[in-house]
Amino acid sequence: MGLSEVLFDKAKNVMPGGVNSPVRAFTAVGASPRFIISADGAVITDADGNRYIDYVGSWGPMILGHNHPLIREAVIQAAERGLSFGAATVAEVTMAELICSLFPTIDMVRMVNSGTEAVMSAIRVARGATGRDKIIKFEGCYHGHCDAMLVSAGSGLMTAGVSASAGVTEGTAKDTLTAPYNDLETTAKMLEVNKDQIAAVIVEPVAANMGVVLPKQGFLKGLRALCDTHGALLIFDEVITGFRLGLGGAQERFGVHPDLTVFGKIIGGGLPVGAYGGRRELMEQVAPLGKVYQAGTLSGNPVAMAAGIAQLTYLKEHPEVYAHLDTLAEKLFGGMRKLIDDLKLPCALNHIGSLGCLFFTPGPVDKFQHAKQADTEAYARYFKHMLGRDIYLAPAQFEAMFISAAHTLEHIDATLDAVENYFKRM
Ligand code: KE4
Questions:
Q1: Residue 58 C-alpha to ligand 1 middle, in angstroms?
Q2: Per-residue pLDDT reduced to its tens digit, 222-235
Q3: Which atom of ligand 1 approaches the CA of 238 most closely?
Q4: Is 413 found in the same domain as 381?
Q5: What is the reported pTM?
């Protein structure tokens, strides 16, 4: 029994499922989670001293790799000045100005402590600003665990959602409608049937929580037009895509301008940070200026700001990082796709930039109905094979692979070698 398994037994005594976030329990792959004790660059090390090439990257934040010296130094220097003041600080202004300088759709931004908190707050702003109650989200998209987002499609697709988690009341669920991703026609009908009741449409501009599913040509532009027609706000959940797909996120890459944007992950540089922002007239609705209340003890925490500012500043000053990520991604995902084609495997591979997903189902996978056909047992076998070859993937089919700037061509070659070895035995 390795140290990770001993630790997991202890953890299960004092934490639900032995983890602080469900996916980490490795339940979806039927394995025992590795307890990670350190990380550097593209490599993580577990309690038994095993080293893995890491494609989780803390679920997205570690775009520059783990333990980046500039980020580490910034955190140490900030910590030496004190950890938290609960007061206005220079770092928060620097962070806000940095985000506003990179997102033309954002005049003002509010820092919070997680993507969930940012989504929850953005939805509240949308309801406060429009005076409307209902929200449209998309099947297969995940926006964190606030009650309004733990809702799945009701029986009548056009009507009230149903709670997707114990503890979420039907009263809450009734105000969230769920449309199929990439389905403009159904979304339009939903807006018609609920005329003047929809406060906002929230979408992952690239879905990365049903595996990776790209927006079809015209889908995002269509949502923009539908929201304009119906007076609903368009919220882009860029918790994953923000600063991942480029310095301007998905909204820059696809040329579609949301009313509100939600951030997380990369903007914290590995520390707990979320943010939401938009044009001035919307953000001025937020307390203490406006009537939409939102607050947080550790919002804009100076140490977390130091990590986020260091990472974002590096990305802003070295935009060539994105071209490098694209080169690594093309080698990895292009190599995987070639193997699938050559070996005629029942798999699909979706990717955009340094974000990708191997589905164990034949493609195309462009909506949740396709994604959920995936053979999760097959994914579990693949996951365990790769882990045995010291490649650390997301412990669930419906997640994403994240490449960092710290990955090398040697890492990619070792990964492709392990993939090929598995594919040839399928
Ligand atoms: P957090 O509250 O976990 O910081 O962010 C929630 C969130 C919001 N929006 C999107 C698009 C997200 O992907 C997430 C969180 N992503 C998951 C990974 N699929 C975090 C991993 C986990 O839950 O442990």
A1: 10
A2: 999 999 999 999 99
A3: 11
A4: yes
A5: 0.98
